[in-house]
UniProtKB/TrEMBL annotation:
GO terms for molecular function: guanosine-3',5'-bis(diphosphate) 3'-diphosphatase activity. This is Metal dependent phosphohydrolase. PANTHER family: GUANOSINE-3',5'-BIS(DIPHOSPHATE) 3'-PYROPHOSPHOHYDROLASE MESH1 (PTHR46246:SF1). Keywords: Hydrolase. Pfam families: HD_4. It comes from the Bacteria. It comes from Tranquillimonas alkanivorans. Transmembrane segments: none annotated.
């Protein structure tokens, strides 16, 4: 198990090497998939699900393909990551349009993809709560609303992750209202 998991972290680190999270702190992007994997692992997820959580953005953010993932980690991991990957034609959509498409897509995916998506949205809201001054209030409100739409489409997949998301919404909204990290 550890060999596959550490290989997943290495692959994700390479895929996100030159990326940073939104905000002034310059937080390395790799922190996001690490947090998503941690949130999923806390629910007792199996190895493949944690590996897919680590890798959930690599197809979108690098030249890594679904076939690469299948060759290295097997078809289940590849399918889970592919289920999390936005099609390229969504790249030019406004945030509200992308979130609406993601919500529609999530209605039809396997429960394990939904679990990763809930953790992904939770991590994104944690970023808003940690650094509210990096966000324009209207943009943050739009993002939070879009995340709610997406997670609502995933409800029923994992009550623990859903509860964590709901707490993250409250923290993000509080941070945006006060301008203080929460």
């Amino acid at each position: 198990m550890l060999n596959r998991l550490t290989l997943a972290y290495l692959m994700a680190a390479r895929a996100h090497a030159d990326q940073a999270r939104k905000g002034d702190a310059g937080i390395p992007y790799i922190n996001h998939p690490c947090e998503v994997a941690h949130l999923v692992a806390e629910t007792g997820a199996d190895e493949d699900l944690v590996i897919a959580a680590v890798l959930h953005d690599v197809i979108e953010d690098s030249d890594t393909t679904r076939d690469d993932l299948e060759h290295t980690f097997g078809p289940r991991v590849a399918d889970l990551v592919a289920g999390m990957t936005n099609p390229p034609e969504w790249d030019d959509l406004p945030r509200s349009g992308m979130k609406a498409r993601q919500a529609e897509h999530m209605k039809d995916v396997a429960g394990d993809v939904k679990r990763i998506k809930i953790a992904d949205q939770t991590s994104n809201l944690h970023d808003i709560a940690r650094e509210p001054t990096a966000w324009d209030a209207a943009v943050a409100a739009e993002y939070i609303g879009g995340a709610r739409l997406v997670v609502d489409a995933c409800r029923g997949a994992d009550p623990s992750l859903e509860s964590g998301f709901d707490r993250a919404v409250a923290r993000a909204e509080r941070a945006m209202a006060t301008g203080e990290p929460s």
